[in-house]
Amino acid sequence: MRATTIHAPGDIRFEEVPDPTIEQPTDAVVKVVAGCICGSDLWPYRGHNDIDAGATIGHECVGVVEEVGADVKDFRPGDFVIVPFCHSDNTCPHCLAGVQSACQNGGFTASGQGEYARVTQADGSLVKTDGMPDASMIPSLLTLSDVFPTGWHAAVSAGVRPGGTAVVIGDGAVGLFGVLAASQLGAERVIAMSRHADRQAIARTFGATDVVAERGKEGGERIAELTGGVGADAVLECVGTDEAMKTAFAVARPGSTVGFVGVPHGVELPVRRMFQKNVGLAGGVAPVRRYLPDLLERVLSNAVDPGIVFDLTLPMSESPEGYRAMDERRATKVLLQP
Amino acid sequence: MRATTIHAPGDIRFEEVPDPTIEQPTDAVVKVVAGCICGSDLWPYRGHNDIDAGATIGHECVGVVEEVGADVKDFRPGDFVIVPFCHSDNTCPHCLAGVQSACQNGGFTASGQGEYARVTQADGSLVKTDGMPDASMIPSLLTLSDVFPTGWHAAVSAGVRPGGTAVVIGDGAVGLFGVLAASQLGAERVIAMSRHADRQAIARTFGATDVVAERGKEGGERIAELTGGVGADAVLECVGTDEAMKTAFAVARPGSTVGFVGVPHGVELPVRRMFQKNVGLAGGVAPVRRYLPDLLERVLSNAVDPGIVFDLTLPMSESPEGYRAMDERRATKVLLQP
């Protein structure tokens, strides 16, 4: 098959690689209908992560089941499925506790920007729709593979509750979904920190009541003003840098929690401040499967329209251009079609 | 008056200092009936904190109100009161959110190991008993000033719930109260990490179902065995060192929370592990006032007997010996009488 691969920082290719196959009886192989580029894919692209030269890249996709292993009971070829980027048996103690991203038998999608993807633990991971969805629904369904549940996880981890004030750090796709999640979970005030007009617009559509364009110290002062000097009831850290984390703790009110879902890079947590202010930290790799049934229902009922986050659609063969567009912030989120 | 002072690491004195006075109309001055030495007092004693040479030391006490400021409505001279080590107006947004330790108008007890102590925000801070308690109750009431609610805060912050497994790191007085709190909050299994026979005995009395004497890597392996490889549902970090924190995160199951109340010294939080395992951190300076009414009720009804943690009682004039005894681990917790 052909798939997107990474060879070095900045070196993305779309090329021939071995087909994924059923390796375990619990596996499925999915023919990708749509994949996309994640903000976290930019870490290796920008040289911040180690690279296994020539490896496939891409962990977000939806598609149609092509083949299943002998032990797969709930899916068969032809089913349209959402593929959580982290796979889970959904039966181990961690899955049962709602942390499917720490499944004792878990795995990850490795070729979501390719023509086919192998899903380990198909029964515990995949969620299917009734029949083939309308093409117009594909972008929204695709967000359920990672980015929407990840933003949701930030909000849940931050303890967003009806009536409170939530601050969202980061206006990438995950941050925008943090805004949507905080709004859906009933926050009365959702403050998006964003400097980009196009992303501010999506944030407003997703439910942001306020937008703060300032960053760092000035950003913190603006939040203090907006919250009467008290600070935010919940803070969603959706970037993963030390600066973003520091801003998060600076704007969190005592007793609140920073929910973090940005893969941490160079983050040094301010433990003294956390202690003195009683500000907690929670979150991590999103247990997508936990949130999927609820979020799928919200998508299918048109309660939300998450697909609008895709502002660039390309043929999968042009994935290198997709990476460039996201790296240069010409696109918020790039959808790839085989 | 005479009070305990610190001049340099290891240099504790009991000497004449100026009497505390009513400085603000919301103040009270309390005649100390009993004070005690806190594990956190050992940080400056051991040279790990800056010292203001000659300053009074000691933040835990109970006593009788001696004098009140003009704005104090709820207390009058003669009332027996428990003095939370951190004072709070109990009306500001942080207090109303249950984080009295971050009160916008807060303060701290500064001479709890002296004959008198000034309490700022008397109305919002103090809790009184009906009449003068029996002398036998004084030790238990004294624990309510800091150490018992602090252990309680660790358990609450860690999210201890009925039926689960809680691990308590640290067998100082705070850790022992973490054990008591976890047990009172319904944890089915309370695992105390302790190497000292006398402290293990108190831990058992306080409700520990298991004691793990191993530390570091071996300690983690023992907890893994005891939890079927899953890890603990809640972890209470009651020390404040990097080693203790690392152990806490090593034994916490994915999705759980480390509740921390040990003043952090040299702690570097394992943010990557926290992210990958979805293990959160919560806690900090205990909002004593929040828990006081409930804990006082438990003490007065004899549901708990926290006073047993005091294994050395000295005249206040011998406070230097009290520090030596705690520093050398000859005593778990030292009670001082004027």
UniProtKB/TrEMBL annotation, chains A, B:
* Keyword DNA-binding among record annotations: no
Q: Which cofactor does it need?
A: Zn(2+)
What region holds the Enoyl reductase (ER) domain? Answer: 7-336
Source organism superkingdom: Bacteria
Q: Which CDD domains match?
A: FDH_like_ADH3
Alphabetized Gene3D superfamilies for the sequence = Medium-chain alcohol dehydrogenases, catalytic domain, NAD(P)-binding Rossmann-like Domain
Q: Which UniProt keywords apply?
A: Metal-binding, Oxidoreductase, Zinc
Q: Which family does it belong to?
A: Belongs to the zinc-containing alcohol dehydrogenase family.
What's the protein here called?
Zinc-dependent alcohol dehydrogenase family protein
